[in-house]
Amino acid sequence: MFDLAPETKADWWEVEALYDLCFAPGREALSSYRLRDGVAPVAALCLVARDEGRILAGAIRVWPVRIGPARALLVGPIAVHPTRQGEGLGGYLIREALRIGQEAGWDRAMLVGDAPYYQRFGFARLDKVKMPPPTNPERVLGIALTPGAWDGIAGKVMRDA
Ligand SMILES: CC(C)(COP(=O)(O)OP(=O)(O)OC[C@H]1O[C@@H](n2cnc3c(N)ncnc32)[C@H](O)[C@@H]1OP(=O)(O)O)[C@@H](O)C(=O)NCCC(=O)NCCS
């Protein structure tokens, strides 16, 4: 029903418009955006979902970050158009991005989000990993893409510059 494909330059403004629709105004003031400034996203993991009419229904972008020497995927923003929410598309985008990241050799992924939603994909609180303030530490979540990949990782999340 939905066709997933890597985001291209031609998709960029449509994805921005979807994010503007789905997030509160001022989304780019969030601290997670400071980790993305001037850093190229992980292109293979930035996906757009289009329906049979080629209408954009959802999108996910992913950036690289570092915690000390450890590299991680910072998953998001992810958004599904309000008319397409609750059909499983958000889960499809997240699982596909994680699967492609795992296949590409990434060991771990993290995000800032609602634990009640993301725990179903295996994300759990990272209590030793600090996002730039102001971030609610309860919303800092991670998933190991190789077993134990978050073990012993602690400290500030930094731009992968
Ligand atoms: C969050 C979002 C991407 C989920 O996409 P989706 O396609 O609706 O999600 P799915 O269909 O895979 O899953 C729907 C389920 O997740 C639940 N859910 C959605 N958002 C949730 C949240 N913030 N907290 C808890 N549960 C949530 C729904 O209630 C539904 O539950 P059910 O399976 O028991 O019915 C989408 O709602 C969205 O774009 N929201 C606005 C932007 C946003 O908040 N992005 C995430 C930032 S962290």
Automatic annotation (TrEMBL):
Keywords: Transferase. It holds the Pfam family Acetyltransf_7. The keyword DNA repair does not apply. Coiled coil: none annotated. Residues 2-146 form the N-acetyltransferase domain. One of its GO terms (molecular function) is acyltransferase activity, transferring groups other than amino-acyl groups. This is Acetyltransferase. It comes from Roseovarius atlanticus.
